[in-house]
Specification:
The chain is an alpha/beta fold and about 280 residues long. Helices cover about 50% and strands about 15% of the residues. It is built from eleven helices and eight strands. It has helices spanning about 15-25, 40-50, 60-65, 75-85, 105-110, 155-170, 180-200, 215-220, 225-235, 235-260, 265-280, and strands at about 5-10, 30-35, 55, 70, 95, 120-125, 145-150, 170-175. It has an eight-stranded mixed sheet with strand order 3-2-1-4-5-6-7-8, sandwiched between helices.
Length: about 280
């Protein structure tokens, strides 16, 4: 299904937003790609990378004639943006976000947006611990997974368009309930980040310089933007806390086996986990 928009607005043309813009231009899926950012320097970088055609700092003017609005900002900023543009969007406009949590955002969008504007929450499982308009790339989403939040309120037409959009961006799409999404990513994304942070913090400052490839690989994500991860942590608080509790339990079993010199028990644990990890394609 070929998709063609007249006006696409990308609020936050950084790594994710800019990469979407690059593919939209390459695939000729939009006549105008309008980037919105607070700083003109961000817009200049995005224009230089050709991920947007127009750069503006006035959000309200930008969205007035939009067919598709993409919110690619930190999670906690999305709700404020939805509130500020809710009465400015034209009929049949589709709004999506790319935030790492879904239940809170979807519920808020359904509350503040009019019935003739369609919100579909999405979460591409792609990116980097680094961000910025200068980092965007046209193949970021190739063979990645993109979760698309679906519930009984989702508009079917908009859902089909957004699903096809992400497929054209190169992603494999997974339709999922917003709350179930948050439980999954708490375990496979949010918990690993927090563990990585705690792991770095547990190493003495004088020893950190000796960290080799294993340590670097394990802790790479700890270099992520602190404010973004603050927002994610509080937006998905309950699921993250449950994941942390389970991790502490599993770590406790390893600790207990070592403490009590239960060598065979530890080996069985390591074998089981290795088998589980090896199943990851």
């Amino acid at each position: 299904m070929k998709i063609k928009f007249k006006n696409v607005v990308i609020v936050g043309p950084g790594l994710i937003g800019g990469s979407i813009g690059l593919v939209l231009r390459k695939q000729k899926m939009a006549e105008n790609i309008i980037g919105v950012a607070r700083h003109k320097a961000t817009l200049l970088k995005a224009k230089k990378k050709e991920s947007i055609t127009i750069g503006v700092t006035d959000l309200k003017k930008a969205v007035a004639d939009a067919d598709l609005v993409i919110l690619a900002t930190p999670v906690m900023a999305i709700k404020g943006i939805l509130s500020s543009i809710s009465n400015l969007l034209k009929k049949n406009c589709i709004v999506i976000d790319v935030g790492s949590t879904k239940a809170e955002i979807v519920a808020y969008a359904e509350k503040v947006l009019p019935d003739n504007v369609y919100f579909i929450g999405t979460h591409p499982m792609a990116g980097s611990e680094k961000d910025g308009a200068e980092l965007d790339c046209g193949n970021l989403f190739n063979d990645s997974i993109c979760f698309i939040a679906k519930n009984y309120k989702s508009n079917r037409g908009a859902l089909t368009i957004v699903t096809n959009l992400w497929k054209m961006l190169g992603a494999k799409t997974v339709l999922i309930d917003p709350k179930q999404h948050d439980v999954i990513v708490a375990q496979i994304s949010h918990l690993p980040h927090l563990i990585s942070v705690a792991l770095v913090d547990s190493v003495s400052s004088g020893f950190i310089k000796f960290g080799a490839s294993g340590f670097r690989d394990t802790t790479r994500i700890a270099a992520g933007d602190p404010e973004i991860w603050r927002d994610i942590s509080f937006s998905n608080k309950e699921a993250i806390l449950n994941a942390v509790d389970n991790f502490e339990k599993k770590l406790g079993l390893i600790k207990k086996a070592i403490k009590n010199n239960q060598k065979q028990l530890l080996v069985r644990q390591l074998i089981n986990v290795k088998r589980k990890r090896d199943s990851l394609k």
